[in-house]
Q: What sequence folds into this?
């Protein structure tokens, strides 16, 4: 049962990952990436890592990929130039890929990373909370790296804002509080003005 | 009681290995049928309530079985049949698969999130440890239906609506998430049942009091996440016709409609569970009121609280003019986010110091 | 608790200062830049005091569950990084102010670069190495892109970012292999459990190659040098100055933490790789630098050559070699600081050409600064009484000592070639007559800092023993 679910999910993830790089339409590619994330979340659930699974869905699928989609949808991608040079770079790319794959196949085989090298993880009781365990580890042993990672994100925010906000605050914005507090005297000036025509001239 | 009996009867007829699956399917059906009925009658309630607020009568023609005092009550069913028999028109140049998938993506998460809502101390479909996260993750998935609908329609109005909606939902999700972190700190658990149980002991123990700013932020963000007035720029009838679902008709449109209302009920249910003590009676612990209401089933209190929030949804729509897009963004980023961040610190301090009456016990 | 916090005190002070700088700058609008500048300097100074006073009290220990290592090496390098950043800010302000490019982000990101370097220097685990490196690099990418008024700047930032991300990926891949095989991220545990026989296995060789690729990218050695000339030329001069100083010391620390401390058992494997990198860097850097007419591009190739030289010290894999490399990294950072200070001085408030011709006739226009420049370029060339000579001397001595005689001979040969392009600038300054005899307008801060910088090079040259014994003590010899 569990093995069946694992292979199904793994197949879904692999299929989605292949589709991400092969489909022509970028929006479809993003959606397949979403599918791949959902599949990976399922795999994590199988490992009893429910916090990681849900966080993956929440952060990547729910926020990051939405923004991705947001950008990709607005792009007007012409597919022809994307294909240009495909044939030219194919041999070099294939050679690199082949070399990497063979090195990985040779090194990452069962000798160092086989199942025999790693004991199977212990089954946890039903009330075991992955979230608590993770939190405990993160705020004790990994406190310092955790904080540094937060600073990295802060740098990313600063950089993103500094690089995109090129116009130096010349944008005209409204100030609602000033709109609300405006009084009649500020906007309307009543001028007493004599009539244009002398009385009696008009009429009839 | 009835339910358990039917449950037992049915299980008798299926082979033993299929019991867990059958049982879950049954539970889902038992949840979904009332939910769909609630959605149907919520539309009627909306039209009636807003009608009364605007000194009109609202729907008052279609009756049920010709009973005179039920006039108007047949309206949702008539509407449903009308939509059911209409043709689904797929616009030229639309992406057919995604166009048809979008409504499903919209309603799926709205329904799936109900799995972890506890209706009383024992009734719920799933009691998972990270229930709060699960709910947050699923509500964040709902946006895909809207974005894909807007993109696949091949229409500029739909597309604009989708863009607005995506930006809005992502923005408010952050404030919403932080509000939920406040609940997590206060309850010390991500399990929704544990969160309700942490609020035991009467009205003044409910998290709405110590977490008042988070409560308000959560509910308002909830209104924004469901694209309801006054945050409904994604539909924006006045400028982009109907936003992301402008090209949808018939049942496909109805599914979007269902998703929106199911989401409203979901947000209300979550607000009740997290801030108003879920199924807990407001009279708990009071000297003679408590025994008086002792026989009222727990689920009644939850439904009453949900109804209250739903009324607020309708009330908002009748009262407020629509926010402009930049105002929505300002509210989300510059008002809600700082409020939640500050209040998180406050809550953390309250919990650390075991401030009575909320955090005096344990944890 | 107090000791734990004081172990991270420089980092905490720098981080808090960076946040305050952002707040002050955004709330005071245009008047905020001066306040932000002084605040940043005060913060760095405070961190430096923390480094000097608090860190020695907690030295020799590992904090935050082994994530932070405070050893004499960390104390010395952290202090130098902070000094370098302080001076870099002084130079940078003189350049940015007349161009109206000052912004809170510049100060905040510079502080973040310092923070990243501090974290990296005292990293006690592979995780901290990676995080510190990313923090430093990310801030640098942003700084390079910050003043992107010229297309060359955007190109520089883009190249830096893409190649940097690739290098980080390789480093991470190498680290993941190490973790996969040993099950630990802790550098001390790695050092204790690893044996030379183990590191000969193919998986370890791959891991080492990938990790060295990451280190080499940060140092900017061949074949990971492609970004260096473009970034040096494209970035605004104060940013180039920053790229070429504090991060180089941090990169040296990274090489030390990873290779000399964590994976010291693999010295037999990584030493030959480093020889190739070092010799190729010295060859390419020194030869290509001759052809440059842009001062920043020339200094970029000179950096490549110097970093190759620095690696020579590491590959000797002996305490004296590490100390020599440390001496080299500190002296190089000081020389580079001064050289770019001179570039900023020459640019003044006017349009910046970065042509070598700018140096023409400096000897007559400003005898004092010409003398400072003379000291700096003589030192970069490795002419005897100056600091740069001793840096090369210590490294080569240890190289011969450890039996790499051929490599040492190559190093001397390329240094002699390299001397040509430094001496060419000196010829321009003193013997050529130029028509564009613009007088120099140096601000008080800049001229003071530059003078001190030049004199420091001279002082280290006269008394190399002081710094060298500090380095030796820091390595634990």
A:
């Amino acid at each position: 049962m569990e093995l069946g679910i694992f292979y199904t999910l793994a197949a879904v993830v692999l299929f989605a990952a292949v589709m991400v790089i092969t489909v022509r339409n970028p929006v479809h590619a993003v959606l397949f990436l979403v599918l791949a994330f959902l599949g990976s979340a399922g795999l994590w659930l199988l490992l009893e890592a429910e916090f990681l699974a849900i966080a993956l869905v929440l952060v990547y699928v729910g926020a990051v990929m939405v923004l991705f989609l947001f950008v990709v949808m607005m792009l007007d991608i012409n597919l022809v130039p994307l294909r240009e040079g495909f044939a030219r770079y194919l041999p070099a790319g294939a050679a690199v890929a082949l070399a990497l794959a063979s090195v990985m196949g040779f090194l990452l085989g069962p000798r160092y990373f086989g199942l025999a090298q790693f004991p199977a993880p212990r089954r946890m009781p039903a009330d075991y909370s992955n979230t608590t365990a993770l939190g405990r580890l993160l705020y004790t042993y990994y406190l310092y790296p955790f904080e540094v990672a937060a600073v990295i994100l802060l740098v990313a925010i600063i950089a993103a804002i500094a690089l995109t906000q090129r116009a130096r605050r010349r944008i005209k914005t409204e100030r609602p509080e000033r709109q609300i507090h405006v009084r009649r005297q500020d906007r309307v000036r009543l001028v007493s003005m004599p009539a244009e025509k002398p009385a009696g001239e008009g009429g009839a | 009681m009835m339910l358990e009996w039917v449950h037992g009867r049915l299980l008798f007829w299926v082979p033993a290995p299929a019991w867990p699956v059958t049982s879950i399917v049954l539970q889902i059906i038992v949840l979904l049928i009332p939910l769909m009925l609630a959605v149907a009658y919520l539309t009627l309630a909306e039209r009636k309530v807003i009608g009364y607020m605007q000194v009109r009568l609202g729907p008052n023609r279609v009756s049920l079985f010709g009973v005179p005092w039920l006039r108007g009550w047949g309206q949702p069913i008539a509407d449903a049949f009308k939509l059911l028999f209409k043709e689904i028109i797929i616009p030229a140049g639309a992406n057919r698969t995604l166009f048809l998938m979008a409504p499903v993506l919209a309603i799926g998460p709205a329904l799936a999130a109900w799995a972890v809502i506890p209706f009383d101390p024992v009734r719920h479909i799933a009691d998972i440890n990270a229930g709060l996260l699960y709910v947050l993750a699923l509500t964040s998935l709902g946006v895909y239906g809207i974005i894909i609908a807007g993109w696949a329609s091949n229409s500029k109005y739909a597309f604009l609506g989708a863009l607005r909606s995506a930006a809005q939902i992502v923005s408010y999700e952050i404030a919403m998430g932080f509000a939920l972190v406040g609940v997590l700190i206060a309850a010390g658990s991500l399990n929704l049942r544990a969160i309700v149980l942490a609020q035991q002991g009467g009205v003044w123990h409910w998290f709405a009091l110590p977490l008042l700013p988070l409560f308000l932020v959560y509910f308002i963000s909830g209104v924004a996440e469901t694209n309801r007035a006054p945050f409904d720029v994604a539909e924006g009838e006045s400028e982009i016709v109907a936003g992301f679902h402008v090209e949808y008709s018939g049942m496909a449109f109805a599914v979007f409609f269902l998703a929106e209302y199911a989401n409203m009920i979901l947000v209300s249910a979550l607000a009740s569970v997290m801030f108003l003590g879920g199924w807990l009676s407001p009279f708990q612990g009071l000297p003679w009121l408590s025994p008086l209401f002792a026989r009222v089933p727990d689920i009644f209190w939850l439904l009453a609280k949900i109804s209250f929030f739903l009324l607020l949804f309708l009330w908002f729509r009748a009262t407020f003019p629509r926010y402009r897009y930049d105002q929505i963004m300002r509210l989300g980023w510059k008002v809600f986010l700082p409020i939640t961040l500050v209040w998180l610190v406050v809550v953390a301090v309250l919990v650390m110091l075991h401030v009575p009456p909320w955090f005096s016990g344990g944890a | 608790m107090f000791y734990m916090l004081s172990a991270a005190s420089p980092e905490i002070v720098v981080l808090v200062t960076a946040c305050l700088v952002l707040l002050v700058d955004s709330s005071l609008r245009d008047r905020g830049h001066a306040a932000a500048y002084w605040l940043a300097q005060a913060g760095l100074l405070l961190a430096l005091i923390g480094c000097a006073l608090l860190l020695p009290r907690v030295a020799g220990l590992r904090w935050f569950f082994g994530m932070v290592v405070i050893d004499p090496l960390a104390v010395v390098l952290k202090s130098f990084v902070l000094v370098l950043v302080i001076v870099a800010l002084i130079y940078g302000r003189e350049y940015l102010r007349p161009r109206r490019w000052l912004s809170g982000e510049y100060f905040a990101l510079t502080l973040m670069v310092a923070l990243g370097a501090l974290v990296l220097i005292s990293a006690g685990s592979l995780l901290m190495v990676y995080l510190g490196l990313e923090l430093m690099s990310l801030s640098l990418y942003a700084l390079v892109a910050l003043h992107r008024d010229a297309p060359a700047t955007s190109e520089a930032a883009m190249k830096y970012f893409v190649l940097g991300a690739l290098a980080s990926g390789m480093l991470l891949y190498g680290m993941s292999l190490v973790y996969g095989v040993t099950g630990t991220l802790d550098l001390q545990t790695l050092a204790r459990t690893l044996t030379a026989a183990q590191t000969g296995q193919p998986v370890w060789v791959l891991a080492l190659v990938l990790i060295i690729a990451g280190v080499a990218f940060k140092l900017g050695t061949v074949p990971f040098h492609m970004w260096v000339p473009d970034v040096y030329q494209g970035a605004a001069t104060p940013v180039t100055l920053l790229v070429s100083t504090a991060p180089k010391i941090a990169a040296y620390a990274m090489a030390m933490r990873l290779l000399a401390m964590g994976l010291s058992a693999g010295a037999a494997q990584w030493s030959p790789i480093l020889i190739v990198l070092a010799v190729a860097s010295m060859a390419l850097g020194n030869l290509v630098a001759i052809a440059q007419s842009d001062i920043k591009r020339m200094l970029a190739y000179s950096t490549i050559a110097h970093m190759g030289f620095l690696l020579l010290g590491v590959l000797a894999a002996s305490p004296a070699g590490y100390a020599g490399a440390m001496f080299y990294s500190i002296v190089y950072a000081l020389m580079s600081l001064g050289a770019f200070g001179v570039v900023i001085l020459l640019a003044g408030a006017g349009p910046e050409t970065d042509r070598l011709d700018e140096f023409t006739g400096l000897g007559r226009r400003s005898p004092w600064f010409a003398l400072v420049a003379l000291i700096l370029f003589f030192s970069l060339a490795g002419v005897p009484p100056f600091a740069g000579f001793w840096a090369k001397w210590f490294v080569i001595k240890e190289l011969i000592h450890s039996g790499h005689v051929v490599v040492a001979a190559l190093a001397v040969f390329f240094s002699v070639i390299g001397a040509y392009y430094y001496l060419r600038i000196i010829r321009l300054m003193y013997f050529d007559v130029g028509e564009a005899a613009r007088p120099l307008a140096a601000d008080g801060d800049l001229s003071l800092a530059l003078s001190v910088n030049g004199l420091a090079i001279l002082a280290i040259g006269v008394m190399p023993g002081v710094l060298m014994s500090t380095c030796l003590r820091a390595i634990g010899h």
About this structure: The two ends of chain B are 36 Å apart (CA to CA). Chains B and C do not touch (no CB pair under 8 Å).
